[in-house]
């Protein structure tokens, strides 16, 4: 089974590129982030024509996560129990929840699509929100692992954290910017401490997954590695290969992120002689 994660940065803008890549790379399941649309606005047609079902969690023109799969998706979940809200409280005093997390089960593999809050600035309320969001996710994941240790689990998506100094370009403003601060890296390390592994890094030690549109970041290779597939021991044991698709940052109208993909030793039950779709 071939699964991938990709912050598409507006699916309505990039649906052609995304579907073309899915078919070309023979992907079974794609976790998407920043779809930036509601259910009624999502461009289902091209996905369905290519043989993919879509499940999504989108509330407005911001954020939003989704899955596209040509295999059955079960146990669809939006959000996680400990997720904090952010923004202006409603009449009930409760902060609204953003569309940043959803999960599906495919072939008994539990998959999450995650869009971790950016943080914005170290002194911004969004930074506090980011750390609270990650702490809640870690707590819920730890509990889930205790109850379902044998079931493969992967937390996939845009983590908005660069865990290592080598995950950003050499002149990155360490100490004065989000993504590399000590609390953020500690929050990321918490997931490793509870048993998850970056299943891509052991196969691809170096390489970025994001390049800002401004200041010629991509031509200068001033990027960041912030998109990860964090797998449980049961998931990691199934991984046979991994790849970062840097070429998808090129061409017309790319996302500022590129896909990250892993192959699993899981029988999909699909006919390898199925006709190609162009």
Topology:
Layout: E1 2-7, H1 11-24, E2 29-33, H2 44-49, E3 53-57, E4 65-69, E5 74-78, E6 101-106, E7 109-115, H3 125-147, E8 153-158, H4 182-193, E9 197-198, E10 227-231, H5 233-236, E11 239-244, E12 260-264
Parallel strand pairs: 1-2, 7-8
Antiparallel strand pairs: 1-12, 2-4, 3-4, 5-6, 6-7, 8-10, 9-10, 11-12
Question: Could you explain the architecture of this structure?
Answer:
By secondary structure, the chain is of the alpha+beta class. The chain has one domain: Deoxyribonuclease I, Chain A (4-Layer Sandwich). Helices cover about 20% and strands about 25% of the residues. The chain has helices spanning about 10-25, 45-50, 125-145, 180-195, 235, and strands at about 1-5, 30-35, 55, 65-70, 75-80, 100-105, 110-115, 155-160, 195-200, 225-230, 240-245, 260-265. Strands 3-4-2-1-12-11 form a six-stranded mixed beta sheet. Strands 5-6-7-8-10-9 form a six-stranded mixed beta sheet. It starts with a strand and ends in a 14-residue tail after the last strand. The model is unreliable at about 275-278 (pLDDT under 50).
């Amino acid at each position: 089974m071939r699964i991938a994660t990709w912050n598409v940065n507006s699916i309505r803008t990039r649906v052609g590129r995304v579907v073309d890549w899915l078919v070309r790379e023979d992907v079974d399941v794609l976790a998407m982030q920043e779809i930036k649309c509601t259910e009624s606005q999502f461009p289902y047609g091209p996905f369905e024509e290519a043989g993919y079902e879509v499940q999504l969690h989108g509330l407005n023109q911001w954020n939003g996560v989704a899955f596209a799969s040509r295999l059955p998706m079960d146990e669809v979940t939006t959000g996680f129990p400990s997720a904090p809200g952010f923004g202006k409280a409603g009449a009930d005093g409760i902060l609204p929840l953003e569309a940043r997390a959803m999960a599906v089960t495919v072939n008994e593999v539990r998959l999450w699509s995650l869009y971790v809050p950016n943080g914005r600035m170290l002194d911004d309320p969004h930074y506090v929100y980011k750390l609270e969001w990650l702490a809640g996710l870690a707590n819920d994941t730890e509990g889930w692992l205790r109850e379902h240790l044998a079931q493969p689990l992967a937390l996939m998506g845009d983590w908005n954290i660069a865990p290592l100094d080598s995950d950003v370009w050499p002149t990155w403003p360490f100490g004065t910017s989000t993504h590399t601060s000590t609390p953020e890296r500690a929050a990321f390390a918490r997931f490793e401490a509870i048993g998850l592994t970056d299943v891509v890094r052991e196969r691809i030690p170096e390489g970025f997954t994001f390049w800002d549109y401004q200041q010629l970041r991509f031509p200068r290779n001033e990027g960041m590695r912030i998109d990860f597939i964090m797998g449980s021991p049961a998931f990691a044991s199934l991984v046979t290969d991994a790849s970062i698709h840097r070429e998808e940052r090129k061409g017309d109208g790319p996302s500022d992120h590129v896909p990250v993909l892993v192959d699993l030793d899981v029988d999909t039950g699909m006919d390898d002689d199925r006709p190609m779709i162009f």
